[in-house]
Design goal:
Elements (H helix, E strand, L loop, with lengths): L3 H33 L6 H28 L5 H4 L5 H4 L5
Helix pairs in contact: 1-2
Length: about 90
């Protein structure tokens, strides 16, 4: 069993991309609401929020994909191995 502090640090590290994505979403939302209220559209902060949102989602998605790939829970067609005969013989295919 891993020490508790290692698990806490891992959870904190995985929360950072989520916080980044939430910040990007909030920034984009606020800019859109301000533009609907009559203020001019701020392109650079909107693009910064979009990049922050996509970066956070990308890191979280790639972590989940990597974890599921390690545990053999990814479909063969996502791995590019749909033509491999050994994958067809595994249970669940």
């Amino acid at each position: 069993m891993k020490p508790v502090y290692q698990r806490i640090i891992a959870i904190m590290i995985m929360c950072l991309p989520g916080v980044l994505a939430i910040y990007g979403w909030t920034l984009m939302r606020d800019i859109l609401f301000d533009s609907f209220a009559g203020k001019p559209f701020a392109w650079f902060p909107f693009l910064g929020g979009l990049i922050a949102f996509l970066a956070g989602i990308f890191v979280l998605g790639s972590f989940i994909f990597y974890r599921d790939k390690k545990r053999n829970k990814i479909q063969a067609k996502l791995l590019g191995k749909e033509k491999d005969l050994h994958y067809k013989n595994k249970p669940g295919f």
